[in-house]
Design goal:
About 45% of the residues lie in helices and about 15% in strands. The chain has about 600 residues and is an alpha/beta fold.
């Protein structure tokens, strides 16, 4: 019997090894084939009179998951695209004489406003080279039209239109829900504007929160509106009138008010493109996509030893290892240390796209960056959001770049602790405690927090807040009084942050990289990305699981604030007090 068990175990182990080995072999072969195809699809094979087809139909991320490379190697479609790849492709198209222009499809852009502006700036530079940009859409969302407005001509489907309505931010409030069902979030905070916790304390928006959100979206619209108006040769007042009365919703009206140039079906538009580049009606339009441009791209300079490390800090700041979408201390401290130890890396660029999170982890990462700055130049590039903990880890850089539409600041801290006593009382559950000391229970979800616990937590929050302000004062060469005036949890756009001294300059990742090279006194360099997160088979199989797709759909269907309420209530981190340096509201600007 033992022999049979051993035999079966051996057979099972062998089969498992063969399956895994087969998968690895398949991936290696696919990777080699992909590399061969890349060589064969280099820019040298792009035909004369080609057009770059820039279709923005995937989520645009600062840093794509490592598992995506595996998916693509299997012949599966990519699920996202990296911002720097799109910008590089636009630059390559500008430099390639065989490419005459860009065919832009940007109806539904899945990117933040700062990322969208980075793309628009790249398109403006492309257009300044003398090449054309034509934009076509069945219907343009506001963000999509912001991109399309840079085009020489905008074409829309006869049944389409343009969404131009201004900006709004919607926030859900839970106080009545908490009172009705007995679920409560105990809140301890510091900062006049630290209103991430406001929805748990009230059912209406405070004047302080209304003020900061109003100021924020007005600043964002200032950039959006002025750039669209300039591109379409109209005044900002004229554009505001169009947005106020929704005058462009129908395509005929969009033409009348000057936002659209022509009404065409796509087939008619394609014929117009052919005529523009001198292709006969019988021939096919020669289109290339961003993968064609990147394939065989000699962006990596052979023989150049110097490097600039780009460390992507994307997502919330949490306890744990970290990943491409979460900033954890272990992975990111290791990434910083690796960049410092590498003799080839001459400067570090930290790309921050984070709403913040754990105050403790933020300080641990800040400390690692402070040590790194003593060895090599450190430049920060802020993406869509670099607020609270995201600003904490950025504030000590030699130079900070933000996009005008970056959301930053939010210098303030808070703690939320779930309490379900009202609910458990209603259903007949009672928790009893036996203690050696009066505060021995610490925190229990079944009891209101004690005065002693609240006092201790508030002391911790005050300590973190003072430390946060000191970090900013030291990093930005400001007095504590000046920092206090900018702090209290208030958020700012990148444009406002440049004016008040929280950032040094306005610009994207490319500008930050150039500044890092200048500080390091190097002219030629290659880029290397961190953190280098390896994808294991557990990650791969999890991606293939049908349950993962179901979970994603359920989460996406829930209101963001409700998801946050559920996650906060069930998080292991809330079993003990966790002080948060996080943006003061769930930012949903539309």
């Amino acid at each position: 019997m033992n022999f049979l068990r051993t035999f079966l175990a051996s057979v099972l182990g062998t089969l498992t090894a063969l399956v895994i080995g087969g998968i690895i072999l398949f991936v290696l072969i696919a990777g080699i084939a992909s590399a061969v195809n890349s060589e064969g699809s280099s820019s040298a094979l792009i035909q004369d009179n080609s057009i770059f087809s820039l279709k923005l139909d995937l989520p645009i991320l600062d840093n794509v998951p490592g598992s995506q490379e595996f998916q693509v190697s299997l012949g599966l479609d990519a699920e996202s695209v990296q911002l720097i790849d799109l910008v590089t492709a636009i630059d390559l198209a500008k430099a390639n004489d065989k490419i005459k222009g860009i065919h832009l499809r940007s109806e539904y852009v899945q990117a933040g406003w700062a990322q969208t502006k980075t793309l628009r700036d790249a398109l403006v530079t492309f257009k300044e080279s003398g090449k054309f940009i034509s934009a076509y859409g069945d219907y343009f969302t506001q963000k999509g039209y912001y991109l399309a407005s840079v085009a020489d001509s905008v074409f829309v489907n006869p049944n389409g239109g343009v969404e131009l309505k201004g900006l709004a931010s919607e926030i859900l409030y839970f106080k009545d829900f908490e009172d009705e069902y007995g679920f409560k979030m105990e809140v301890i905070r510091h900062g006049k504007y630290k209103s991430a916790v406001e929805p748990y304390l009230s059912n209406t928006m405070s004047e302080a929160n209304r003020e900061q959100i109003g100021s924020l979206i007005a600043s964002l619209w200032e950039t959006i509106g002025s750039e669209i108006a300039e591109a379409r040769n109209m005044s900002v007042d004229e554009l505001d009138a169009i947005a106020t009365e929704l005058k462009a919703n129908l395509v005929e009206n969009a033409v009348k008010v000057g936002l659209v140039d022509q009404i065409n079906y796509k087939s008619e538009y394609i014929e117009l493109l052919k005529n523009k580049v001198g292709i006969s009606e019988d021939d096919k339009l020669k289109l290339v996509d961003y993968n064609d441009l990147l394939a065989g791209n000699a962006a990596y300079k052979k023989g150049v030893r110097d490097k600039i490390a780009v460390i992507y800090a994307q997502g919330p700041i949490l306890f744990g290892d970290g990943s491409e979408s979460q900033i954890g201390d272990q992975v990111f401290v290791e990434a910083i240390e690796e960049a410092v130890k590498s003799k080839r890396v001459k400067a570090i660029v930290l790309r921050v796209n984070s709403p913040g999170g754990s105050a403790m982890i933020s300080d641990i990462i800040w400390n690692a960056l402070e040590d790194a700055k003593k060895e090599k130049p450190l430049v920060v590039s802020m993406g869509n959001v670099a607020a609270s903990g995201g600003y904490y880890i950025a504030c000590n850089a030699d130079t900070i770049f933000a996009d005008p539409m970056t959301v930053t600041g939010s210098i303030g801290v808070f703690a939320t602790i779930p309490n379900v006593k009202g609910f458990t009382d209603d259903i007949g559950i009672n928790a009893e405690h036996v203690m050696t000391h009066k505060n021995a229970v610490g925190y229990s979800p079944f009891e209101p927090i004690s005065p002693g616990f609240r006092k201790s937590a508030l002391e911790g929050i005050e300590h973190v807040y003072e430390t946060f302000k000191q970090r900013v004062a030291d990093g930005r060469n400001l007095s504590l009084e000046e920092v206090e005036a900018l702090a209290q949890g208030r958020v700012w756009t990148g444009l406002q942050a440049k004016e008040n001294g929280l950032v040094d300059a306005l610009g994207g990742l490319d500008a930050a990289i150039e500044a890092a090279a200048e500080l390091a006194e190097i002219e030629e360099y290659n880029l290397t990305s961190y953190p280098k997160i390896e994808t294991d088979f557990d990650d791969i199989f999890a991606l293939m699981s049908p349950f993962a797709a179901i979970e994603t759909k359920i989460k996406s269907a829930l209101p963001r604030e409700f998801s946050a309420f559920i996650e906060a209530s069930t998080s292991e981190e809330n079993q003990a007090l966790q002080i948060q340096a996080r943006i003061p509201f769930s930012l949903d600007i539309k």
